[in-house]
Design goal:
Chain lengths: 327, 327
């Protein structure tokens, strides 16, 4: 493989001139032309590893994410990669599958490779493991208070869900949580729902399912209750995944949606940029989350000595689908 | 930031001993203990950029993919990252959005960074742009014949779709293609469908929709035809995305699925590892595609001077959902 010296020799100029040319500095037009020809002839490719080593700056940003195989995470990954790319950073994708040991090994790798920064979405205590002063921005959860956090306004989302249900002739309100999400930030959805119900004298119940186990029995009990009871139910599900499971199970059992029971999820899953699920949901503004997180990280990477720890909250909105009645 | 010399000084050993220790070679127990303490005290993090530069080997693999925001690509990205990680490689995620200029810039970046290899899924002529002798494996499409290809057995998938429909009392068969996928490999689905129909004397028609534009008018014409005609229709859609659009539009227009029209998609979208769409589909074995592609690339990266250009075909299977009748 040819190097900068070979190019200089071929173009009959000094190595410094080649370096200036490659770094966009001014060189004589004749030299520029000769260097250009030499690069093409030698099929010279610049070695950026060497360059980064010299400047101590890397173009890599590590993105630690529990999954990319789920509409929320794949949309988030899409936008994070796009905004990083816009700023000239390359994304090293690290899927943790919620495995703390994997998360730790990714952080170690990031430190060893001297990457420019880390973006993470982790439901464990990942940030407590980061020792170095590497810039890091968390999405959705951050427990230590040592790093910036970008998250949806989950509390407001819970209130909006309760309000939307209350405008649709509901007799009985139920919040169905997710047994596999324990973060303070995500539980704010539940708190918002409860506070709205209490403030408006609405009777509600709290239940929980484990979306990984599908929790057939709990769902069956719920179906029996709704079937044997003339009342109209309104459910706010902690995530779209739970809302989807409930919708399918209810329909399989012959319950009519939205006549017998109305369901609002949380996330607003879009399967592709043009295809979304038809369940009603509190939609997270995932593009805005990604953009805000990347911009915050960029600020911290540009000026690591003056990091400000921020808590950035992104608004959410109700998206009507076919699991709620028209108002 | 401390370096290897600082560790050696702190541990009172030679730099060579520290290097041996870090590379897993044998050192005296006392030295090992002292180095370990020194590393902890100095908060020393190994600089792998320097190491890779020296050995001319990088742990990075660039993955060029049109999107991660779509169930097929997000599942594929999930498995590719997992199998790369198992072999100790880090994935640099490069989303091209089918933009040829972006694809080119990612390849340039890969060559400049001296990454270990490239995995790509591209519907443009990406591989024709790769100049260096960097190991590259394509998924789903490869036109130049210069690089290995891993793809589903699309032709067999088309035959299976026609056969499954023919076992379900269909009067009229339609293939609905995708105006935005022009690769030879994906069009094999259509060829398999046509060949099966011709070989078994089944009457069929060919239509095309552009899933990005939603093609409302073409779909409306189809709905009118099916509604005004007592016949039972069987549709094989080029992708699940098209199958999903058709299913929603048909249902909105009051057509009954599977009574009036049966639909089989292609991909077998799973929204998450545990949630799949309920449309009937020819399911691609995405884990096997990813595994095979990563293993092939690994072989080529380990021994770049003896690369064998392979064409690897992964079997597909029918997955019954609720858009076809039970047999």
């Amino acid at each position: 493989m040819s190097n900068m010296k070979d190019v200089a020799r071929e173009a009959n100029v000094s190595v410094a001139t080649v370096s200036n040319f490659l770094n966009g500095k001014k060189v004589r037009p004749k030299a520029a032309k000769d260097i250009d020809l030499a690069i093409k002839k030698l099929n010279y490719v610049r070695n950026n590893t060497a360059r980064f080593l010299k400047t101590q700056r890397s173009a890599f940003v590590v993105f630690v994410v529990p999954s990319v195989w789920s509409p929320f995470f794949s949309e988030l990954t899409f936008w994070v990669q796009k905004y990083l790319d816009n700023l000239g950073y390359k994304m090293v994708l690290c899927v943790s599958e919620n495995d703390y040991q994997k998360e730790k090994s990714y952080v170690t790798m990031a430190e060893e490779q001297r990457v420019a920064g880390i973006l993470s979405i982790s439901y464990s205590d990942l940030t407590s493991h980061v020792h170095s002063d590497i810039p890091l921005v968390s999405i959705e959860k951050e427990s230590t208070g040592q790093f910036s956090l970008v998250s949806s306004d989950n509390y407001e989302g819970g209130k909006i869900a309760a309000k939307e249900l209350s405008e649709r002739n509901i007799d009985k309100y139920i919040f169905i949580g997710s047994a596999n999400h324990s973060s303070v930030e995500m539980n704010a959805r539940k708190a918002g729902f409860i506070d709205y119900c209490n403030n408006h004298g609405l009777k509600f119940e709290i239940a929980e399912v484990d979306s990984r186990k599908n929790d057939k029995k709990k769902i069956k009990n719920l179906i029996d209750e709704i079937s044997n009871n003339g009342k109209k139910y309104g459910i706010f599900a902690h995530t779209d995944e739970i809302a989807l499971i409930l919708t399918q199970e209810f329909q399989d059992a012959g319950l009519k949606i939205p006549e017998h029971v109305q369901i609002i999820g949380f996330d607003g899953w879009k399967l592709t940029p043009d295809t979304h699920l038809t369940i009603s949901s509190i939609r997270q503004n995932i593009e805005e989350i990604a953009k805000t997180a990347v911009e915050q990280l960029h600020k911290e990477m540009e000026d690591p000595d003056h990091r400000e720890i921020s808590r950035l909250m992104i608004p959410v909105a109700f998206r009507a689908g076919d699991t709620t009645e028209n108002k």
